[in-house]
Design goal:
alpha+beta; Double Stranded RNA Binding Domain; SHC Adaptor Protein; 4-stranded mixed beta sheet; 4 helices; 9 strands; globular
C-alpha cells in the first residue's frame, strides 16, 4: 500500500510524515483492497482563522469505492487525528456493507441461462460521415488543474474522475463515504449525468442533466 503525503501552501515536516504513516497502517486492517492513500495538508494564511489554519484531507483509493475524510484544526497533527477518526468510521461502515453483500450473494440461488438460438445475420451499417471535432484539453483523471478566469482574481480548480454508471442507492453510499454534501455520477437507469445532494435528515435529492439542441 502506497502512502503519498503532500502540502499545499505549507511544508510537511518529516515528523508529521512518520506520525501519519504509522496511523495510516491501520487502514489495511479494514480494507485489504486499499492500494493508495493520499494525504493533503492545506494551510490557511488568514490569521483570523488560526483555529482552523490547517486542513487535512485523507483519500483512500483501491479496487473498491473511494473513501475520503477531511478535518481542520489549529495544527496539522490535530487535524489529522480528527480526519483519521472520520476515515476509520467510514472504513468500518464500508467493511460492514461488503460483508452484508457477501452474505446475500451466498444465499442467492444460481441462475441457469436458457440456450439461445443462433443470432440472425445483421447487415453492416452504411458509413456515416463524421464531422471533425476540435479536442479540448481536460485534466488527466485524478489530477487537479488550477487556472485563472480571464483577468479576474477568480481561480478555477478542475478535476476529472473516472467512475462506472451506478444506481442512486450506490451513489448515496459512496457520497457518505467521501463525506461530501453532494455527489456527481452517471445514473445506471437513465444513463444521464446526475447530482445527488443531501437535503435534511435522511432526505436526499437528485438532479439529472439532459442535453438539448440549442
Amino acid at each position: 500500500m502506497e502512502i503519498v503525503i503532500a502540502g499545499r501552501h505549507t511544508e510537511v515536516p518529516d515528523r508529521f510524515r512518520e506520525f501519519a504513516e504509522a496511523k495510516l497502517a491501520k487502514v489495511a486492517q479494514y480494507d485489504a483492497r486499499a492500494q493508495l492513500i493520499e494525504v493533503e495538508i492545506v494551510h490557511e494564511p488568514n490569521p483570523r482563522q488560526a483555529d482552523t489554519a490547517k486542513t487535512v484531507e485523507i483519500t483512500v483509493r483501491g479496487k473498491g469505492p473511494v473513501i475520503r475524510a477531511e478535518a481542520s484544526a489549529g495544527d496539522m497533527f490535530s487535524a489529522f487525528d480528527v480526519a483519521m477518526g472520520k476515515l476509520m468510521q467510514q472504513e468500518r461502515r464500508a467493511n460492514d456493507r461488503r460483508k452484508s453483500r457477501h452474505k446475500v450473494a451466498r444465499r442467492q440461488a444460481p441462475v441457469i441461462e436458457p440456450a439461445l438460438a443462433e443470432p440472425l445475420p445483421v447487415a453492416a451499417p452504411a458509413p456515416v460521415a463524421v464531422a471533425e471535432v476540435v479536442e479540448t484539453k481536460a485534466p488527466q483523471p485524478g489530477t487537479a488543474v488550477e487556472s485563472s478566469l480571464a483577468d479576474s482574481p477568480v481561480v478555477i480548480r478542475e478535476k476529472t474522475h473516472q467512475a462506472p454508471p451506478m444506481s442512486v442507492e450506490d451513489a448515496i453510499y459512496q457520497m457518505e463515504l467521501v463525506g461530501h454534501p453532494f455527489f456527481l455520477f452517471v445514473d445506471q437507469a437513465t444513463k444521464l449525468p446526475s447530482v445527488l445532494y443531501h437535503r435534511h435528515g435522511w432526505t436526499y435529492g437528485v438532479l439529472r442533466l439532459e442535453t438539448v439542441d440549442a
